[in-house]
Amino acid sequence: MCGISGVVGLKDVSQLLFEGIRNLEYRGYDSCGVALMNKTRLIIKKDIGGVEEFYRKHDVLQQKSNIGIAHTRWATHGKVTQENTHPFTSRDGNFAVVHNGIISNYRPLRDQLKKEGYKFTSDTDTEVIAHLLEKFFKKSRNPEKALVKTLNLIEGTFALAFICTYLPGHIFCAKRESPLMLGIGDEIKFVGSDFNAFIDHTKNAVILDDGEYAILSRDSYVVKSILNEEEITKPITKIEWDSETSKKGGYPHYMLKEIYEQPQTISNALDLEPSGLDDVVKMFEKAESSYFLGVGTTFYVAKYAQYIFSELAQKFIAPISSDEFLSLANVNKKTLVFAMSQSGETFDTLSALKYSQSKGAKTAAVVNVMGSSIARMVDKVVLQGSGPEICVISTKAALSQMVVLTLLAMKLGLKKKVITKKAYQENLKSLKELPAIIQGVLNERSGFIHRIANKYCKNKNWLYLGRGIYYPIALESALKMKEVAYVHAEGMPAGFLKHGTLAMIDDDISSIVFVPPKAKKDLYESTIHSIEEIRARSGFVLGIHFTEQGKNQDLFSEELILPNVPPLIAPLIQLVIGQLFAYFTATSLKRNVDKPRSLAKSVTVG
Ligand code: F6R
Known about the structure:
Structural class: alpha/beta
CATH superfamily of the largest domain: Aminohydrolase, N-terminal nucleophile (Ntn) domain
CATH class of the largest domain: Alpha Beta
Bound molecules: fructose -6-phosphate
Number of helices: 17
Shape: globular
Number of domains: 3
Strand order of the largest sheet: 3-2-4-1-10-9-11-14
Largest sheet: 8 strands, antiparallel
Number of strands: 24
Helix content: 25-40%
Distance between the termini: 11 Å
């Protein structure tokens, strides 16, 4: 949610700032701005709209400066207007600030500053920071002291950076609960919300922890504690991701590229160090009670995990949506809370984990972003190795997490003797077939899904139905449809339909049903019953099913037939269809696929 990029170097940095915030646009993209320094005068440019448009419109590359900070915004406080766009300057124009997070006490601070004569030009919480810096600088004549004073006054969450005319070769930055890291190059230093801000220029990063601030100049950097201003020695983290994997590579959208990367990311998940997974399995064994934790897509990953753990390890684990965790969970020292997060920065999930830790619970997580807050805070992290997921819509990260969870359930099932060694090996074999099968489905079915999506893209309402483990697949596929195509889609257990929702079946509502392979006899038959209930009311049904059922024109209004696959991996393949159907519906409706409205990649606010 919002991206910060800052650079201080030898030469002009406007191009580097442009690349920095363009690479961070997936975190927020409703408006953007930069602050540069002309000798000892700040130059501020900002506007609503995307980064490329902004740079072009304001001729930003013509401004020469060897230091600068930039911001791309996803509005939380105040509408999307030029006035509410970062950076914000102090009243005297000597400080320029960019900020991610929420200053929870900004209202009383603003009221007080207004009484002291400071004028506010925006509705944002961030503007108080700029004025506070000016106020405290006047007393100490020292930007660092002004920063520390300000940080001790503001409540809430922040990743912030500022430059000021008093020390024109320095970037000041600080972090509490919003991610921020430094990029360390020779004669050039960066600050960014994540690696993408500087990955093209250096792979050496220093990840700031909560309660730390840093001061960067071209040749040096220092990290200190907000609490006592003492210097902290921080390790350099080598970024393993390749900048090329962050690029679109010929695909029209990152979403499609990332869907197509799934055979690879699943292979990566299957190649994870077994000992890391074994450690997590031990934690599940030891815990007296466990929860799965996630929100949005990762809540559906958590629901998938609930089914697969029940099936393969006979272990019932409740999944809780992170935002509801505090109201529902009962945690103590004998509880294990296992979280899923692509970004590793989601506020709701972080808060639930912190709460669990405060109660003495053990925590573990599967996370995609190394060095992220969740990856660092939990007792045991599994880094899933899916590479950067740039599209705001999560696809490859979620599917790979499901594979990791399946592996964990198998390992636990084997240890508990719920499944035999032979069954374990067969399951492993099935999982290993998954990348090639998905590759085949992508190659051979995409065209058909594209046609179907195009044909039905004007349908206004969809019911997404599945039974058993196909229910979380239906939920996640419906979420994809909503968030990327803005089409109403409701995920529901197919068996739930007859308890009320059937009344909705008419020409204005279509159903998409995830049918299990026939090998899952009971599940298969009960799913078919649900379809018959819809068809008896002349409802439209798009059936996604496996070849062994054969073509069945009477049962389905449209059908998408998949190759016959082992039951264990069937739901995961159906999820790929859900992703593609949403993607092609969105492109048919000319939606902004990689940057859908009202959604940010890293939701770091509560
Ligand atoms: C949906 C989506 C969101 C995220 C959710 C959790 O496509 O991306 O629903 O899944 O905000 O984010 P992470 O996984 O980063 O914790």
